[in-house]
Design a protein that fits this description.
Distance between the termini: 74 Å
Number of strands: 14
Strand order of the largest sheet: 2-1-3-9-5-12-8
Order of helices and strands: HEHEHEEHEEHEEEEEHEEEHH
Radius of gyration: 21 Å
CATH architecture: Alpha-Beta Complex
Number of helices: 8
CATH class: Alpha Beta
Shape: globular
Number of domains: 1
Largest sheet: 7 strands, mixed
Helix content: 25-40%
Structural class: alpha+beta
CATH topology: Spore Coat Polysaccharide Biosynthesis Protein SpsA, Chain A
Amino acid sequence: MLLVQWTMLVILWHLRRLDKVNSGMKKIGIIIPWDSPFIWSVPMFNMLNWERPKGYELNFIMGTGWCPAARHNDGVANAQAWGADLIMFNGGDHLCPKDVVVRMLARIDEGWDMVQAMIPSRGVCGASGKAFHGMSYKVIGDMPVENPMLNAPPGSIQILTYADEPQQSHICGTGNILMKTEILKGMEKPYFEESIKKDGKYGRYCVQDSMFVYSCTVLGGARLFCDTSIKLVHVDAFGIDETYEERFKDKEGQKDWCPAKDLRKYI
């Protein structure tokens, strides 16, 4: 009987010790705002193999909702309810280096509020007209303007490339960013909103994520760091990495071209 009691006391001591250790850990809520089979394939296995940073607890959250903005908002709400110190957005169509969280955290520790790993566009980049151009924009002109991704004055933004040194940026998608949760304090809800095309077809502009980042940085004062040294793969009909911008120069200027759409002509 005494042996059983002693054993139970030892187990309880270890559990309490573990609770104390866990309570001192910071939390990163990783939001995958996708309702897509992508998430059940290669990207999921990629995330399973990510390196876990010491002193941090990771929680992968799949945002739900009828549109991308709704899925982002749902993911953020769940991350906040969990008590996340940091929020990371990771697209369900991205493949990341296994140490991506560790490398992005190092930039946060340097004093940045947000860190971006630049992702190549899936087709022709609307801002530059180049195929598979990286998506990160530095404000160099007069801002702010309403919906800068659609209405930015000529010469007001500089599009960063993979050849550029890691540096401060201002506008990007939420394909892969890490940010302090405290940035959201004081921001109006909903954090993400859709922009609908008035073209009679009820299409949408894919700017709800870049507008969110713009609200955090240009309007809210958060400092965003674009880490061009972190190389990602954008999953489409094939995996797109930073080398494809040079390899598909013949597609430059072909509006709305992307490989998945190109394949439809064979159907």
